[in-house]
Amino acid sequence: MRCGTRTAAALTADGWLRTGDAATIDDDGFLTLVDRWKDMYISGGENVYPAEVENALHEHPAVSQAAVVGAPHPRWGESEVAFVVPAAGTDLDPVSLLEFCAERLARYKAPTDVVLLDELPRNATGKVLKAPLRERATGAA
Predict the structure, then answer these.
(1) pLDDT digits over 19-58, tens only?
(2) In this predicted structure, what is the pLDDT of residue 85?
(3) What pLDDT shows up at residue 118?
(4) Residue 81 lies in a domain
(5) CA 115, CA 133: separation in Å to the nearest integer?
(6) ∠ CA 34-81-111 to the nearest 5 degrees?
(7) Domain membership flag for residue 14
(8) 120 lies in a domain?
(9) How many domains does the chain have?
(10) What is the pLDDT of residue 113?
(11) In angstroms, rounded to a whole number, what is the distance separating the alpha carbons of residues 35 and 20?
């Protein structure tokens, strides 16, 4: 097994696997995956799941791709930095994108900074690599 120690750490004493996924259960008992626990950050004492913010960003017609990470903030603990790839042929204004998000998200969830990129860093399978974005966000916040 390639990740034997990490797998062992994810198993409980009675054999359950802690997947690292954050989820909710609705009144009808349906389970909805929200995000990964390791991607969640706390802003102003509130839990923020980047997937929710990313979904709001993707509603903007000039956004092709988006990834959100928490960055250190002196007052709120962490604040949201959105890394965005504009859609081809668009002229995306970061300020208007912040206003767009402010209309759709709770104040503590709305990004405080937008960084425009040509592409998001990805691994060989296409998954967005958030670690380099967090490193970059530390300087952007």
Answers:
(1) 666 667 889 988 766 556 566 777 888 888 899 999 999 9
(2) 98
(3) 96
(4) yes
(5) 10
(6) 75
(7) no
(8) yes
(9) 1
(10) 94
(11) 9
pTM, full prediction: 0.76
Q: Is residue 116 part of a domain?
A: yes
- 11, 1 in Cβ contact below 8 A? no
CATH code at position 83: 3.30.300.30
Return the HEC string of the chain: CCCHHHHHHHECCCCCECCCEEEEECCCCCEEEEEEHHHCEEECCEEECHHHHHHHHHCCCCEEEEEEEEEEECCCEEEEEEEEEECCCCCCCHHHHHHHHHHHCCCCCCCCEEEECCCCCECCCCCECHHHHHHHHHHHC
- Which residue range(s) make up the domain with 87? 39-140
Q: Are 110 and 130 in contact (CB under 8 A)?
A: no
In order along its 141 residues, the chain shows pLDDT tens digits of: 466 677 777 777 887 776 666 667 889 988 766 556 566 777 888 888 899 999 999 999 999 999 999 999 888 888 899 999 999 999 999 999 999 999 999 999 999 999 999 999 999 999 899 989 999 998 754
Tokens of 5: 């120690």
The answer to whether 17 touches 1, Cβ cutoff 8 Å, is: no
